[in-house]
Amino acid sequence: MTRLILFGGPGSGKGTQAAFLVDYLEVPHISTGDILRAEKADKTELGQQAQAFMDRGELVPDQVVVDMVANRMAQPDAEAGWLMDGFPRNTSQAIVFEQMLDKINQPYDCLLFLDVPPLTLNQRALNRRQQMAQSGQQRSDDTPETILKRLTVYEQETLPMILNYQKHPKFIYIDGTLSVEEVTASIKRSIAKGGVN
Ligand code: UDP
Ligand code: MG
Question: What digits encode the pLDDT tens for the residues 62-107?
């Protein structure tokens, strides 16, 4: 497996499992959220464009994110494979991404869905916020309002897109409510069945 797309809601554990996966599969981690946060921190034009949307918990406009992904995928380290984390996030992004992959002849090997129910996601987000605040850190998009907004966007835009893929032969369902170790083990098993190469 060299090309994977990781689906899941905000706080579903994508980042944690992505860190394991990129190490295990030796592919670069492409996290659109991480790229956007870096652009924002560097105050680039893209970062400034994205900032308001991110701080509100809304989706950054499709074209901005799609261009960003295209640029990242054009870098040499992405030629041999990648793990896509946080993108696509809605049906139109998914359609454009599929076309992009078709054009560059890079079919994905699997779509991994880390399923965590929205109520659990909400609880996790609030817990994380509390922990971060206690250690003196805080992400500007981690207010209770943005947490709720991100969850709403997930339920209204991202989840329907994910469910559209449910019957896809490359779709792998993972119960994301288990412990980190159990989720990792379950991903490992699923990938092994699909064949690591
Ligand atoms: N975001 C976006 N499109 C992306 C990735 C991120 O619009 O492809 C924005 C969006 O505003 C989202 C925020 O960045 O709420 C944080 O995204 P990330 O994927 O990092 O969320 P997390 O992994 O923390 O759940
Ligand atoms: Mg993330």
Answer: 999 999 999 999 999 999 999 999 999 999 999 999 999 999 999 9
Locate 155 and state its tokens. Answer: 């339920």
**Nearest residue CA, atom 22 of ligand 1?**
10
Of 43, 89, 39, the residue nearest 68 (C-alpha):
39
Q: Which amino acid is at 181?
A: E
Q: Give the residues surrounding ligand 1 with Cβ less than 6 Å away.
A: 10-11, 14-15, 32-33, 36, 53-54, 57-60, 65, 86-87, 89, 141, 150
**166-185, pLDDT tens digit by residue?**
999 999 999 999 999 999 99
Which ligand 1 atom is nearest residue 12's CA? 25
Provide the CATH number for the domain formed by 2-193 in this structure: 3.40.50.300
| Chain centroid to CA 1 | 18
SS3 content of the chain, % helix, strand, coil (to 5): 60, 10, 30
Cα-to-chain-centroid distance, residue 188: 18
Please, what's the largest Cα pairwise distance for the chain?
Answer: 47
What strand order describes the sheet that includes 82-85? Answer: 29-31, 82-85, 3-8, 110-115, 171-175
The CA-atom distances, in angstroms, between 8 and each of 40, 48, 97 are: 23, 26, 17
